[in-house]
Amino acid sequence: DASFRGLDVVSKKVIWASGTGGTVIRTIDGGSNWGVIKVPGASKLDFRDIEAFDSRTAYVLSIGNGDSSRIYKTSDGGATWKLQFKNELKDAFFDSIAFWDEDHGLAQSDPIDGKYVFYETKDGETWTRMPAERMPVALEGEAAFAASGTCIVTRGENEVFLITGGKAAHVYHSSNRGQTWSSVPAPLIYGGQGTGIFGFAYMGKRAIIVGGDYTKPKQNDRTVAYSMDKGKSWATKYKLAPFGYRSGATFVKKKTIVVVGITGSNISYDAGDSWEELDKVERNTVMSKGNKAVWAVGPKGEVSKLRIK
């Protein structure tokens, strides 16, 4: 069974997910039936991020060193795939892709020579590296985690966020499609190789980051923080979080948030002031389109629709 980390809930009916073994799955009837799609020539690849626009159009990103980092696109519901991008940078390791619309998006790699690496597409077909001198500076030992497909997240017409961890944890922000960047330190645990921010979500002015230490998933020291000003500043609400390591988050409604991780899932109905445990199922990422379409995926083929009251 594939381990899934890529997820895109396009609508109540159309959901795509991606994972190991070059696997993509898709439903067009709200999860009653799933089609399992094997991308040709990708059986050894791990598709950590998927971005879909409807039942026919989707991009997937595979991660890894060298030419294991690739982007494929389908325009016919997964019947055929075009390899659009194959990494040729020796030290690159891609983590995430994000789009403003079907033709305009970014792909992000861990730093090379102290700078995060970004490629952009302006036509939905070709990918071009953005000038290194304009890219965000990484502190030594800082990188992004390809954990939930939310290392980079777009917002509105021109904004994009980048979340990081390791020796440092930052939320980077660009308001001009990645041309220039600013950053704020995040109040999540950092310093170890497995620590930092793993998931990001927003709705309106509110935003949430989740993470922790994936090598100690039950440790609940600084695993969640909140922003009330569209991600400009971040704060924790309690000394110890009500859950351990979490890699995915989604806003179901303005104050309803679901978070998932390998030790279970939790829900808050009051914008994070208090949390309830949903279950103890291992999951990697979660996404929603309203409370009737909250989906989460994880290891060992885990795909579930979460029941939210």
What does the model show?
With 309 residues, the chain is an all-beta fold. The protein has one domain: Neuraminidase. It is 0% helix and 45% strand. The protein contains no helices and 28 strands. The chain has strands at 4-9, 15-19, 23-27, 35-38, 47-52, 58-62, 70-74, 82-86, 94-101, 104-112, 115-121, 128-129, 142-143, 152-155, 159-163, 165-166, 170-174, 182-185, 195-203, 206-213, 224-227, 248-251, 257-261, 264-268, 276-279, 285-288, 294-297, 303-305. The strands form eight sheets. A four-stranded antiparallel sheet has the order 1-2-3-4, with no helix packed on it. It has a four-stranded antiparallel sheet with strand order 5-6-7-8, with no helix packed on it. The model has no long low-confidence stretch (mean pLDDT 97).
Topology at a glance:
Blueprint: E1 4-9, E2 15-19, E3 23-27, E4 35-38, E5 47-52, E6 58-62, E7 70-74, E8 82-86, E9 94-101, E10 104-112, E11 115-121, E12 128-129, E13 142-143, E14 152-155, E15 159-163, E16 165-166, E17 170-174, E18 182-185, E19 195-203, E20 206-213, E21 224-227, E22 248-251, E23 257-261, E24 264-268, E25 276-279, E26 285-288, E27 294-297, E28 303-305
Write out key terms for the chains shown:
single chain; 309 residues; mainly beta; Neuraminidase; four-stranded antiparallel β-sheet; 28 strands
Say what the CATH topology is: Neuraminidase
Using only C-alpha atoms, the radius of gyration works out to 18 Å
Major sheet details: 4 strands, antiparallel
Enumerate the strands of the largest sheet in spatial order, edge to edge or round the barrel. 1-2-3-4
The end-to-end span amounts to 30 Å
- According to DSSP, the number of beta strands is 28
